[in-house]
Structures are given as structure tokens and as C-alpha cells.
Amino acid sequence: MEYLVTIGLEVHAQILTRSKMFCGCSADYANAPPNTHVCPVCMGLPGALPVPNRRAIELAALTGLALNCRISHENVISRKNYFYADLPSGYQRSQYDDPLCVDGWVEIEGDNGPKRIRLTRVHIEEDTGKLIHTNDGGSLVDFNRAGVPLMEIVSKPDISSPEEARRYFQKLRQILVWIGVNSGDMESGALRCDANVSVRPAGQQEYGAKVEIKNINSFRFLERALAYEIERQIRALKAGEPIVQSTRGWDEASGTTVAQRTKEFAEDYRYFPEPDIPPLRLTDAWIAERRAELPELPDARRRRFIEEYGLTAYDASVLTDERAVSDFYEQAVAAARVRGVTPKDVANWMTGELFRLLKETGEPLESAAHRLRPEYIGEVQDLLNQGVITRTSAKEAFEASFREGRSPARIVAERGMAVIGAGDALTDLVRQAIANNPKAVEEYRRGKVTAIKYLIGQVMKATRGQANPQAVQQALEQELARE
Amino acid sequence: MTPLYQLTVAQAREALTRGEITSVELTEALLARIAAVEPKVRAFLTIDADGARAQAQAADARRAASDTSPLLGIPIGIKDVISTQGLRTTCASKMLENYIPVYDATAVARLKTAGAVILGKLNCDEFAMGSSTENSAFQQTRNPWNLERVPGGSSGGSAAAVAAGEAPATLGTDTGGSIRQPAAFCGITGLKPTYGRVSRYGLVAFASSLDQIGPMARTVRDCAIVLQVIAGEDPFDATCTAHPVPDYEAALTGDIRGLRIGVPREYFVAGMQPEVEAAVRAAIEVLREQGAEVLEISLPHTPYALPVYYLIAPAEASANLARFDGVRYGLRVPGESYFDELERTRGAGFGPEVRRRIMLGTYALSAGYYDAYYKRAQQVRTLIRRDYQQAFEQVDVIAAPTAPTVAFKIGAHTDDPLAMYLEDVCTLPLNLAGLPGLVVPCGFAEGLPIGLQLIGRAFDEETLLRVGDAYQRVTDWHTRMPEVREDNSTQG
Ligand SMILES: [Zn+2]
Fold it and tell me: What is the value of ipTM here, to two decimals?
């Protein structure tokens, strides 16, 4: 029997703001000692009040627009009530009835071609603190993370396989990092997700029982956890066992999902509008401002690279994977054009030499770009086109630029890499080669045209490879014809 | 000469400005008065004598350096639900018996900047939940006019301290009448400002959409002086609005000619003490004689205010009090696990009335009940607000009783929560509408004070204060002070 898989993801993404969602504490708490990024508000001290972070709302709306959502004009922050030691106020400020963004979609490469994954909503909320369990069975709590702004991005159950789930999550990460609203750092938990998965026999109309897998913080775990869970559910269905609606966690060590403590009563969060925060009214003008802030998105840019620059689908895709790389490429193209260097040549330098060097040094382009400036790519290709340097020298100059941060032209000049081109220097060397190799000259004159190759080799040897072989051939032919 | 402890804020300000007295002298006089009457009144939970003396000295030094801050050297008491940095803030609850805040409420910070001397923290009902101060976990504050009577609540300590001459002014808080009802019971003047007029930052929340800090003093002018200092926008409170703060003392012109005063028939409820109604009607007559026009009006949804209030306020309270889990501050009763500890801590830390309201509120917000209770209550709240909007198209101020009776005996309602809730029937409707309310003394019955309640348009404290001040210019109820002694049942 065939089984249909239905998956929906709830992605939690920290919003990249300087301060927390409802107070002035720095949201950049990574590596800070515990409880040093705290204040009366995010510690939930008696009497402290939340004041919403305007930038967090702007960035969440920007996200909504990037994900093709509608932005709500009327926004209500609600209190989600539950007790836990990492939740300082006894409620989490979140959104319930009126989320900031509704009804979007993300296009991914699905199992059967391009596919739109629809979104239900994107809402804002605050992160909780972090519990640290000690060896003696005690627990410590660090509130540095408490109150960091968070977005919850909820998809419809449009995902049909673990691979699609991974691609969707990857696509979301790409967009969030691209528009600058999230660090994309999954290891630290700045981006994480819960996956809902159900399985039903083909032909059955109603969905199977939903199992939620909590707190997944890597693409690989997501794919593996879903694959395992689908297997487990199909096995159970085949054995005639019912699937119980439940919450499970992914255990990387055993490669299995594990049932989490089942609650003896249904969760009732008693949501109600947060009385400390007046409803946020967003005007059309405000939404238009956000739209104006939205950069060209990776998919659009990829298509443009193909159409405008004639790139292959592969190159276009590689060059729009990350915003920094893509922007660098566009800057390089703009500078190269002035010198008559084609976008394709620029793409080749980037996907070839530049990516190889970045991989070797293990650094992001942002930091290497302080040395290798975008205009250097056009410069080095131009030197090559002009015949000033050989391809070998061009690569050497490029690498030197990358490592030392000086322009390729300067490196060529300083290292005497310029090709010994037409002109007296080359003519002298050519004459010398003719004089020193009468046997080869004799053969050439007798019609063995390939004998010139030997002579070219001799000249190249004399220039230690600094001559342009075509120029050498031309000069040789000229000299041989003269005598 | 008047004893220093009997000076109003305005009188003390004048004497200090003229150099007739120093803040140290005034503060010592009040500390001496506190020492004398506190064993009977029991208004203070914490008396900060050393801190007050140091602040008084600092104020005198500032004055010597030509500082003219509006409350420079004036002693003030603070209700114990308002956060004071370094000074114990208990909320009259076992939960916070030893809690010392690390920060000042905005209102307190503004008082300090203005030069006020903080005398200490005043008793109230636990977490401001109650109408008699009987719900304090620590002590029973008594009505200075009759020590067998309650001072009202929840700001009972703030009212009793002013009435007994222990402080010329205090801060109270008002969620459903907690400034106005005790002001009426203790024969002082109290102002509940418009919601959003005074920052709530640092006020330990009872019901966030209703709570408001306000001044309590012996005169309307004193309330105006204190309001001037604490009012205005605060970047730490998103509900505190940017409305400009006018010059409140300048509004006290004494001229109320042509002002239209509405008298809502729904506020003269069945069971109201006849002397209370008579005193309130007589006070309205005084206003008419001063040139105001008096109209009878109707606020038809008034009878729904009480049930609406007792759904919304406990609902908000149930969430506001969730933070008291023993993890970060306050009481912690050790247990087997987080949840076990949570239950033990909250069971031991909260008194019965607080627990009752948490349960009421949790119920009102529960799945399946939310629409029928909380949501419906919010809809009716809109109707109550609309009643006032329509009334204020006809009138400038509404005049009404504050409470149905004078101060009742300690213990009279403690077994009957519903009877206690009825105490607030005349005061809580305007909290639901966010409007300002001023109470001024307007007579006595059984030797106990009666208060006239004046209700104004949102952010129009000026008109309220003008009417109250005009009334106090031609009456002397507010100048009377009780002699605090054990056998004073025949006083008045
Ligand atoms: Zn903070």
C-alpha cells in the first residue's frame, strides 16, 4: 500500500535587532556570562512594563513581505499563559488573534518540480530564558535570551517529504539571512523549527494523527527525524497500531525520535490581549516604507543573472546563494564592464579561483572583500585580455591580490609579470633563438611547420614563461620570413 | 502657630521657600507624629526614618544652592505596591515580605527629582485587592476618625496617614476605587488620574488596563501640586500617553460659573446611607450656588460595571501575578520539583482574597469560557465607556457619591466577599472607562467623613481640580482633622 506524507513546519527565527523585544537590553548575548543582559523588564520584576521594539516589528513585517504575506493593519500582542522557570513573567508575549503577517508562500524545488509552500502566518513573540541542568540534579536559569525578539513562521501542511521539508527550511534560512532579519545561526538556536508530520494510506481523505517533533536545529536533523518518524508511523499503520497525537524529540545519538512527557491535561494557554501594550496600528504608508526597504530577493536575482548576464543556471544559482557573494558579483560586473570584461568572465573568476581560495582560508567573502576588492576581477581579466599577462600569471596575480590586498596591476608591475610582448625585447630573444637553433630553422624552412613549436618553446624558456606564446609565434614567423 | 505636621503641601512649600522652616524640621515633626500615632493608626509597613532624614538634609542643601524644585523638602508617603529602589516593597503580601526593589517606579523617581522626602511605605490590601485594607498580610490599618472602623482600601494606609497627620501627601493607586473610597472614608482629598496620565512603570500590577497611580492629600491644591510632578509621558510605559501636561495649579481659579455638572441617577443606589446621599446632594447644591449648572443625567450601563469589573480585573490579575514563582525574588518554599515548589510557594505566599481573584480570572480566560466571560465583559466595557462619552456631550463634570456608606466596622464584610465588592459600585465604572475621578470631603455621618466624587473627561484633570478647589474655597470639611485616640467614637 502507498502512504501519503503531510508535513508542516513552525520555524522560530530570532530577529536581528540591537536590543530585546520589550526592553533596552542588548540582544547580542552570545558568549556573555549568564544573567548579564538583563533588566527589570526581561527579568519580570514586579512593576516592570514592556515597550515594544519598533525595529523588531519593522523587520518582522519585512520578512512577511519577503514571504509574500499580507501585513495586518491592526496588530495585537497577546499573553500566552503558562508556568515555567525560564519564563520570567509567567506568560510569553506573543500574537494570537491578529498576527502581523498572514497568508504567504515560499517557492521551493519540490519533488516534482517547482512548488509553492503556503504560509499561514508570521507572528512576533519573545524568546524565553535558558535552563542549565547541573550534575547534582539542580537547575540554573540564564535570562540573557529572555525577551529576545522572535518570529514564528508557520507553514500550511503542504510539504510532502523530508527532502522538501529540508529544502523549504533552507530556502527560508536563505531569505531571512538575505534580507538581514536573522543570523542564520542554527547551532546557537537563533533559527530552529518544530515539524508536524502525519501519514495516511493513499486514498484516505482525512489526515492521519499529527505528531510534532520539537526543537530541531539543523537541516540534517530535520530530514533524518522526519524520515525516521515517517518510517515509524508507516510501520505502525501496517501493523494495525493507531498513531497517537503526540510530541516527540529528535535524539541524534540514537537516530530516533523519542516520545516526550505526555501531558495529563490539554494545554490551555488562556491567551488574552496584552493590556500593557496598546494595539499597534500599521498604516498603508508604513507598510509601503517596509516594501521600499525590501531588497531584490534571491530567486528574482537568480533569474535576472541568467537573463541579463547570460549566466548558466548553475552559476546564477551559486552566485545568488548568499547576499554578500551576490552583491560582490554585481559590483565586480559593474567595474568590469567599463574595461569591456564580460559578466561571464567575472562569474568564472568567482566560481573558480575565488571560491577555491575562500574554501582554503575558510573565511566568508565579507572579510576577504576587505583585501580582494570587486574591481580587481575586471582588472585581472583585462590584463589577460590585453595580452599583458599569461593565464598562469593572471591566476598568480589574482591569488596575490586575494592574500595581500593589492591590485592585480600593482602585483604584475612589482613582480615583473608582464608578458614580454611585441617590441625590441621580444625581437632580440627571437633572433637569438633562430641563431642558436639552425637545425629547427632548417626544418621549418623545408616545410615542417611544426618545427616552430620548438623555437617558441626556446623563447618561452628564455623569458621564464613571461611571454605571450601567440606573440612569440608571430614574431618568429616574421623573422623567419625576412631571412 | 499650626503644628508642622498639620501643614498642607502648599503651606509647607511656602514656609520652606520663605526660609521659615527647614525640611529637616518638617521631616522631624512628621517622624515624631508618626511615632506618636502609628501604634494606633498602623498606616506604615516600613518607616524609613534614616533615609528621610538624609533626604531632608539633602533638600535643605539643594535649597541653599538656590534649587527651586516643586516638592523640595516636602515629605511624602508611598503605597507599598509602588517600587522604591533599596526600600522594601511588600505589596502587603507574604510573597514579597523581604523584597527590596533594584529600581524606582517612574512616579517615585519623579518625586525624588522634584526634591520630595520619602517617609516610608504605606499599608494596603494585598496586591491592592480589597476595599478595607483588611487583606493586608501584615497589619490592620485603622480609620483615624474611629479606630474601630476601616480606613477603606486598597490605599487605606495612604489615606489614613494623611488623615492622621503622618504625611501631608501620599501616593495611592486606584484600580476600582482604591484611592477615592479610602479618601472618602478618611476625609481627605484623592485624585485618580486618567488612565495613561501617570506612568505605571514600577507599580506592581493588579489589573493593567485599570491601574493608575494618583495623589492623596488634604486639599485639591496639594493633589494638583503632586500630580504636576508625576504626570506625563514615560518611555518605560507604552500605555502612558504623550498628552501635554498643563499647569494644574493655574487651573485653580475658583471660577466655575457656567460649568455644567451632571448628576447620574444610577449612582444613588438602593441601600445607600441617607446621610451620605444628603451630604452629596448638599455639596452639589454648593456648586450650583457657585454658578454651576446642575443637570440630572443617566449612565444606563452602570449596573453592569461591577460584574464586568470582576471579570476583567481578576483575568488580568491572574496573569500579572503569575511571575511570583519563587525563582527570582520573593518567597520560595522548597519542593520536589519546579512545579511542586511553584504550588507550595504560591499557596503559602498569597492570601485568600488574592487566591480567589486568581481563580476567578483563570476561569474567565479558560478555553470555552473566554468568549462568554472575558470577551463579553470587554464588549460591555465599551458600552460603559460610550455612556460617559454621551454624558460628556451634555456636561463638563459628573458629580456623584463615592461609596454607599461611611467607613464600616473592621470585620463587618470579611466573611462576605460580595458585600465587600459592592463597596466599589460607585467608583469602578470610571476605571473601566479610563476617566479621572476626584474625591473631596463633603460632610460627616456617625462622626465619619463622606466624600463627593467628581468625574471628568479623559485628560481633563484641570476641570475636575478647578471644581474641587472651588468647593474647598467655600467649605471647611477638608480642614478638619481627627484627634487620634482610642475612645473617639463621638468625634466629628
Ligand atoms: Zn532587559
Answer: 0.95
